[in-house]
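Sample pair:
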Amino acid sequence: MSILNINGGGSGAYIRFMPSVNAWIYKDEELALKHFLFDHDSIKTGWGKMSEGQAPDWSWDPQLGVAQAQPSSEHKRGFSIKMWSKATGTVEWSSTGTGPVMGFDVIFEEIYDAAKANAGKVPVVEYTGSDALKVGKGNTRRPNFKLVKWVDRASIKWDAEAGAAPAAAPKPAPKPEPVDDDIEF
């Protein structure tokens, strides 16, 4: 069983993974997203109804992954999480789409399993591409992720509202070992 029980929003800035175009969309533009932070403490699961041109209608689970009654036949299981990247700052990623929900569920299981051993830290995640899937009579794409490492939560000041980059704490002197330029957390 999935921890999140999402297989089957909020205000401010947001990001979307759109299976139909196999792309991340931020401010109506395609974004080449590679590395980002998830604020795994911000995760919410619930029933969401997403309609073009309207704000999402969410009925959040009172307990993570414990589904309540479906509000309407138009509501689907989904999630919302706060994330941060250099390109976007702090944004909300929420979805009820089959492919995005499947992909997120896999990486969140890994994050959830490692969170206790990484108390006081947040995960750095890498987007590694997507897989085309046939689901029922339709097609979708499942985004794939890799948990890269954990960084101290105290080094990141998450914004109260999504949309602006968090202020990083002063960085210690650089280590002599080589550092992946794409990951500067």
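The radius of gyration is 17 Å.
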